[in-house]
Amino acid sequence: MKIGCWLLFGVFLLIVIFLVGKVYLIRKSAQEIKDSLKEIVTFDTNILISTSSRDRQIRQLADSLNTQLGLLRRERHRYQQGDTELKEAITNISHDLRTPLTAIYGYLDLLKEENKPESVQRYLDQIQNRAEVLKQLTEELFLYSMITSIQEINYQQLTLNRSLEESLISYYGAFKGRQIEPEIKLPDSPIYRSLDPTALSRIFGNILSNVIKYSDGDLTVSLHGDGKITFTNSAKGLSLITAGRLFDRFYTVESGRNSTGLGLSIAKNLTERMEGHIKAYYQDGKLTIELYFPERR
After folding, report:
1. Distance between CA 235 and CA 231 in Å, rounded?
2. 60 and 110 assigned to the same domain
3. Out of 82, 93, 141, 215, which could bridge 233 as a Cys pair, Cβ 3.0 to 4.6 Å?
4. How far apart are CA 180 and CA 167, in angstroms?
5. Do residues 107 and 161 both lie within one domain?
């Protein structure tokens, strides 16, 4: 009886040891697959996922992941190639449009000096207005293609307080023209961040330009102690849906004044390239754009 019990115990112990070993090998294989997948995704290499396991199911899993990664890699390269070609096309188009625009402005200047009836003047004013919109569009198209093509960010230590103040001061005339009196809330202590000053100035400028387009006459700019910056203004012409699409390329709303739909898209692109976050939300008739740059370590 005792021999039978010991034999049963020995079989049970062998089964437990076998299962523990099996679980260990599965966990080891899973970790190998995880590490390989992380390296492939991070560095976009052409290496394949490999595993030391001889288990057929584990090896089939690795083979299946390699197949899907190959398809994903090809699609990524196609997208990158198409994106590069699109940027080159935008650059060429915006450049080609500048020559006829220059000619149009030249003829408009000549026509301004001529005696003409009031009806003709109205038509010329419309042509001037549309030419200004086209000029702004070509400039922003060119700027967008240049910004998205440049890979290097020139990081410098700066204070968000001062950078924000300088941008607000530069828009004083535009605010006054739209009868907007900004309420500015800045902390007494400086908030330091390592950012590209030119890119940061462009981000602030594009956000403030958006305010001028959509504000109903007010603006509150707040710099919080954690570095978060909020721009809030009344904008009854917007909605939850339109606010959520403000960062989409070429998206505009009807209340936008001569808008190209690229300003906030450029701001988002620059923000994310400096590892920041930007979002917009709409509540109780007010639009808030929130900007945050974490401290670089």
Report:
1. 12
2. no
3. 215
4. 15
5. no
Rounded average pLDDT per 10-residue block, the chain, 297 residues: 70 80 81 80 73 80 83 79 70 70 78 81 84 78 66 86 93 86 91 92 89 85 93 84 73 52 81 91 89 86
- Does 11 share its domain with 27? yes
Per the CB < 8 A criterion, the answer to whether 204 and 224 are in contact is no
- 83 falls within a domain: no
| Residue 261 and residue 248 in contact, taking contact as beta carbons nearer than 8 Å | yes
With respect to residue 45, please indicate whether it lies within any of the assigned structural domains: yes
Phi, psi dihedrals of residue 292, rounded to the nearest 5°: -145, 135
Say how far apart CA 269 and CA 148 lie, in whole Å: 7
Is 117 exposed, middle or buried, given 0-12, 13-18 or 19+ CB atoms closer than 10 A?
exposed
pTM: 0.58
- Token pair, residue 267, equals 């701001």
By DSSP bridging, strand 218-223 and strand 181-185 are parallel
